[in-house]
Amino acid sequence: MYKTNSKNKMDGILLLSELKSSSTKAVFFDPQYRGVLDKLSYGNEGKSRGKLRSALPQMSEDTIKSFLVEIERVLSPSGYLFLWVDKFHLCEGISAWFADIPTMEIVDLITWNKLKMGMGYRTRRKSEYLVILQKVPKLAKATWKIHNIPDVWDEKVNKNHAHSKPIELQKMLIQAVTDIGDTVVDPAAGGYSVLDACLQTERQFIGCDIETEE
To answer: What is the CATH number of domain 8-209?
Structure first.
């Protein structure tokens, strides 16, 4: 059983299965996809800057799809999924993940400029990408309250986890699509930046990670 506003150590799919259908307006999901390590091998897996990421348990394509099926179930009608992807998945596409979930539609994309140089044989990566999907029915004005969020977001983070994410951006998105007291879900919470964002915006957080440290 999970605790609200806590760092729950458990499997994310199990946590999602315990939530009621149509129970949240917003879910954040940052999958630990194996594909980027296989396709964009820089020869440093398990070494130096690649050590933290490669040490994390990898999600198979089937696992990611299982997460997304449960996420769609717990999202309320017109609710939002904020899905983090890297350059590889942005270019290759994520449509296969949603082939059996026609009720989810891509409605926007935010590029996060991390203000820090990353890896790359040709260009060096400075960005990650947040794909925004909405569960049908697709509505804009009635579901999105903040209209000055840029689609390129500059924010540097203190890296306390291999998947550290920009808390200020997440705060803005949470405030855009939820109200005070609403519940936000993150079933693969990593460094728990979404938990921090929820506490700072007076929302309830339900989330977990299989390697949570209190």
So the answer is: 3.40.50.150
Q: Which two tokens stand for residue 196?
A: 């921090």
Which of 31-35, 37-41, 195-199 has the lowest average pLDDT?
Answer: 37-41
DSSP character for 127?
E
CA-CA distance, 195 to 65, in Å (whole number)?
Answer: 24
- For 88, residues 6+ apart whose C-beta sits below 8 A from its C-beta are 35, 36, 39, 40
CA distance 88 to 199: 32
Quote the pTM value. Answer: 0.90
**Tokens 């594909």 found at:** 35
Residue 155 DSSP label: -
**Radius of gyration in angstroms for the set of CA atoms belonging to the chain, rounded to a whole number:** 16
Domains in the chain: boundaries: 8-209
47 residue type, one letter: K
The answer to whether the CB of 58 falls within 8 A of the CB of 169 is no
Look at residue 124 and give its three-state secondary structure.
coil
18: Cβ contacts below 8 Å, ≥ 6 apart: 1, 2
